[in-house]
Design goal:
This protein starts with a strand and ends in a 7-residue tail after the last helix. By secondary structure, the chain is of the alpha+beta class. Helices cover about 25% and strands about 25% of the residues. Helix 1 packs parallel to helix 2. It is built from 8 helices and 22 strands. It has 3 domains: about 90 residues, RNA polymerase II/Efflux pump adaptor protein, barrel-sandwich hybrid domain (OB fold (Dihydrolipoamide Acetyltransferase, E2P), Beta Barrel); about 70 residues, E3-binding domain (Dihydrolipoamide Transferase, Irregular), CATH 4.10.320; about 220 residues, 2-Layer Sandwich (Chloramphenicol Acetyltransferase), CATH 3.30.559.10. The longest helix has 16 residues. About 10% of the residues have low confidence. The strands form 6 sheets. Strands 12, 15, 18, 19, 20, 21 and 22 form a 7-stranded mixed β-sheet that branches. The chain has a 5-stranded antiparallel β-sheet with strand order 5-4-2-7-9, with no helix packed on it. A 4-stranded antiparallel β-sheet has the order 1-8-6-3, with no helix packed on it.
């Protein structure tokens, strides 16, 4: 008897998935555990695997279609076996629907002029190149031939940075207003373009409504002298260079370590709000906000208070890389007990971040800037950092949050305090 292939819940919060690519096709032999398709979830691009041996005898859902969890997307059976061609047969199943195409408003009547040239298309055989789904989308948008690129991903796979490095020529069509690698369409003659929400953007919208509305936020800001932290970072990186170590220690690594140690001392901030109770965590798992092409995801540094700066640095770079390639596993972006959002690299002096429920707090990290500050009877220039903590007032009171920030400030202003 043929076996149904369902759209599985590939992440804890997944309600529907977009079928990016079939890696097996009708007539192909499959074994249980083999990858059948790549699916875009609300967080990452995941693999949908076979749950039976046999032949892929029927594909019910074309690539690019968004399907609710539980719907039938294919059948596995014996060669020649007949199956229900209607697809989902479960009671109450929702019919799969293709993602709507981007809508374009009618352009106002233009003055007589030659029509603009059509956008350059990606090569017809680009899908045969071993490349990540995100790299293919960017290549198609930029008109880059994937066959001409040297892949730097696992197994020689072409990834996002390879495409961006190869996109040395602008599109041949109307100039785009989007940043390189953006998912926005090129600017055309119409008044506007409607672009369907991606799975991750849908999830971000739901999470923000669940956070900024019901959660009573309040904010605490402090300014931190980073001079000693900067000197310690420079010394550590010199030592790593002399020892032939891996990557350098970043300010973000130092902040994550200091936040983790401060949370270990202030368990009242290392907490989740759980409707009828508050969960105070003994383990410290720090979420690290990472910007990706069409949204934001928060990989988790687990037991960050127990790890060295070098370990945090290596793990943070690996997680950020997989996040940008949409290859994080669910256990790598769930379970944070507190989060850090850093926009310092974008020259943002100060901002407030939205709490990621059920967490009770998040710190927003600005850029480190030289400032003139008083030092006794003279004025000196010191590197300074502004940090803003967003608190869930149902869990954290003002004095509690202030005490946490005071400890965080002490650790960053005197890095030796992290060793105590």
């Amino acid at each position: 008897m043929a076996t149904k292939v369902h759209m599985e819940a590939l992440s804890p919060t997944m309600e529907e998935g977009r079928l990016v690519k079939w890696t097996k096709h009708e007539g192909d032999a499959v074994k249980s555990g083999e990858t059948l398709a790549e699916v875009e979830t609300d967080k990452a691009v995941m693999e949908l695997v076979a749950r039976a041996d046999g032949q892929l005898i029927k594909v019910m859902v074309p690539e690019g279609t968004t399907v609710p969890v539980g719907n039938v997307v294919a059948w596995i059976g014996k060669p020649g076996e007949k199956v229900d061609g209607a697809g989902s047969t479960e009671q109450g199943a929702v019919a799969a629907k293709p993602a709507p195409a981007a809508k374009t408003a009618p352009a106002p009547a233009p003055a007589p002029a030659p029509p603009p040239p059509a956008p350059a298309a990606a090569p017809a055989d680009a899908t045969r190149v071993k490349a990540s789904p995100l790299a293919k989308r960017i290549a198609k948008d930029a008109g880059v031939d994937l066959k001409l690129l040297q892949g730097s991903g696992p197994g020689g796979r072409v990834i996002k940075r390879d495409v961006e490095a190869g996109a040395t020529q602008p599109r041949a069509a109307v100039p785009s207003v989007s940043a390189p690698g953006s998912l926005l369409p090129a600017r055309g003659g119409a008044a506007y373009e409607d672009v369907p929400l991606t799975q991750i953007r849908k999830t971000i919208a739901k999470r923000l409504v669940a956070s900024i509305g019901p959660i009573p936020h309040f904010f605490l800001t402090t300014e931190i002298d980073m001079e000693r932290a900067a000197e310690a970072r420079e010394a550590l990186n010199r030592q790593l260079g002399e020892e032939g170590g891996g990557g350098k220690i970043s300010f973000n690594d130092i902040v994550i370590k200091a936040v983790a140690l401060a949370l270990a001392r202030h368990r009242a901030c290392n907490a989740w709000f759980q409707e009828d109770h508050i969960r105070y965590w003994n383990d410290v798992h720090v979420g690290m906000a990472v910007a990706i092409e069409d949204g934001l995801i928060t990989p988790v540094i687990r037991n960050a208070d127990m790890k060295t700066l070098s370990e945090i640095g290596v793990e943070a770079r690996e997680l950020a890389g997989r996040a940008r390639n949409r290859r994080l596993k669910p256990e790598e972006y769930t379970g944070a007990t507190f989060s850090v959002s850093n926009l310092g690299m974008f020259d943002i002096d100060q901002f407030t971040a939205v709490i990621n429920p059920p967490e009770a707090g998040i710190v927003a990290i600005g850029t480190i800037v030289p400032k003139a500050v008083p030092d006794g009877d003279r004025v000196v220039v010191r590197r300074r950092l502004r940090v803003t903590m967003s608190c869930d007032h149902r869990v954290i009171d003002g004095a509690t949050g202030a005490a946490f920030l005071k400890t965080l400030k002490q650790m960053l202003e005197n890095p030796l305090a992290m060793l105590l």
